[in-house]
């Protein structure tokens, strides 16, 4: 069995936190491996779990990184009887990259939250509501009905992650894109991807770039 280094243990923990989609077998396996650590499983058992996730990889050579892109750009001030809204979004990328710069695994998730307030600054929204990421929301996110390809957000982000695996980070960051009308966000223009991913990839690419920079430290 290959030697499992500290970097791979870090990768497992990071990617387990990011693997929120139950439909991803890799995410499930990584989460199981993380649970094994909590249960004090033997290194042999833990190694067998990891071998199922990323076979033929020298884990001690993998570098891991975390990138987060956040924004409050969609917030709006209250005007008279029209309430304002303090909106926040954050996109996270967990990355495991090989020494040659190719992607061994990558996971994305996004959280969006907001609170309404009136012109006096008093909150009118529910500050106690539980906040879920888009992957956690799954079908309840509600993109499928408005999607031109009939796919939910988590299905599209799964397709984006799968497309990135095995590619060089530099090639992914150089992805062909087109500008979306209205907000200027980037849409993928890759022929083998644009039929399965119609959501904006702007924040994902920025988060990936940060995660890769973090992996070089």
UniProtKB/TrEMBL annotation:
Residues 1-27 form the signal peptide. Keywords: Signal. PROSITE patterns: PROKAR_LIPOPROTEIN. This is Lipoprotein. It comes from Yanshouia hominis.
């Amino acid at each position: 069995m290959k030697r499992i280094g500290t970097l791979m243990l870090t990768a497992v923990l990071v990617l387990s936190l990011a693997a929120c989609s139950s439909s991803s077998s890799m995410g499930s396996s990584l989460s199981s491996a993380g649970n094994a650590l909590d249960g004090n499983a033997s290194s042999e058992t833990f190694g067998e779990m990891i071998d199922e996730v990323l076979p033929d990889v020298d884990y001690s050579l993998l570098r891991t990184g975390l990138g987060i892109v956040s924004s409050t750009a969609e917030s709006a001030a209250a005007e008279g009887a029209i309430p304002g809204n303090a909106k926040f979004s954050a996109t996270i990328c967990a990355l495991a990259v090989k020494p040659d710069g190719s992607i061994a695994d990558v996971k994305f998730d996004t959280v969006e939250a907001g609170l309404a307030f009136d012109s006096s600054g008093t909150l009118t929204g529910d500050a106690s509501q539980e906040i879920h990421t888009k992957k956690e929301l799954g079908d309840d996110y509600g993109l499928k009905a408005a999607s031109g390809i009939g796919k939910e957000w988590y299905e599209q982000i799964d397709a984006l992650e799968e497309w990135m695996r095995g590619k060089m980070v530099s090639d992914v960051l150089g992805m062909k894109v087109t500008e979306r009308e209205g907000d200027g966000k980037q849409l993928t223009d890759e022929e083998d991807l644009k039929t399965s991913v119609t959501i904006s990839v702007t924040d994902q690419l920025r988060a990936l770039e940060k995660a890769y920079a973090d992996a070089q430290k």
